[in-house]
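Section 4.2 – Deliverable D4.2 (structural model, holo form)

The reporting period included a commitment to supply a predicted holo structure for the target in complex with P1T. Inputs used:
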Amino acid sequence: MKKNIKIETKVIHLGGHPDPVTGSIMPPIHQTSTYVQSSPGKHQGYEYTRSHNPTRTRLEECLAGIENAKYCIATSSGMAAVTLIVHSIPKGQTILCGDDVYGGTNRLLNNVFDKHYDSHFIDTTDLKLVEASLKKHKPYLLWIETPTNPLLKISDIAKISKLCKKHKTILVVDNTFMSPIFQNPIDLGADIVVHSLTKYINGHSDVVGGAMMMNSKKLYDDIWYLQNSIGPSQSPFDSWLVLRGIKTLAIRMKAHEEGAKEIVKYLQKHKKVEKLIYPGLKDHPQYKIAKAQMSGFGGMISFYIKGGIKESRKFLSKLKFFKLAESLGGVESLANHPAIMTHASVPLAMRKKLGISDNLIRLSVGIENVEDLKKDLEQAFK
Ligand code: P1T
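Output (structure tokens):
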């Protein structure tokens, strides 16, 4: 059934079968830490909420289904999902990672897991470099974001997946920016898909959560073992909130994209914009790949404002509907200054090389009326 139904239907129905006891159409919140056993070891599949919880199970069923995967593990944050995956690598192995990733992912690999693994950061939009690095470093795992945070670079998932298979490297794709509505990395050959549920999937800026989806039972079992041992499982209430948020994911993503396209048109003509980055622009260096592997271009826009830190600060502090805050993907529009906020932990030399400079601004376009959003940007530019 799952394969034949469209994603707009999946987001409403997966994980949502009526409660067998009461018929309640919405799943109950199993706000419990433990479960009564009839005799030692005799239970109904649930022993303790760190290990399993029925509300979390509903969420995991839904998340696996919308990413066309067999298994899902829902975690207490996006970073918890990243941590569990990296932890599953045998000691002494090497990780290859895209050079432009969320600042927290960079920090985790550079400053936390550096005691256990070597990490190399490369531009994964360059397939020759990817192949050469796979040959040279023989990494256990290749981690990519596409589109990247914050520069919206696009990597070719299908081609990278083929290279990874050839070199026996696990390919992980962080799909947070597109959500399963616009991109399904498993279908393109990724071994694991990761999400910060905090963003589009929950969509209402009231939950921090993460998830990973995969088809391999071995990967699932190994990582679930770590989840159970280390403990960053998603709580029942937050699982329920995310399950509720997902129901509108399809219409929200379309509204985010519609708004973003209008804002892009407005920014394109603006004399105070030095450079605009959006995967749906024909002059985006990977436009063709974006068009082929994504079914939408999403709601994230990055641009360089003319000037430097002074102009960025002035613009950002004048915005009214666009709230100046970390995070993205909620119904409300957000603006972010990556160099000072989300990517401050990326080493300065790397930021400079990538172009995460003082005049780079990232927008997460919400689903407000787009004319109001444009007026907001205009008064801040003025
Ligand atoms: O914040 P958390 O739920 O732990 O998710 C981490 C994370 C993972 N992957 C990507 C692509 C992300 O963007 C994030 C978090 N990002 C922000 C908070 C941000 O403003 O970019």
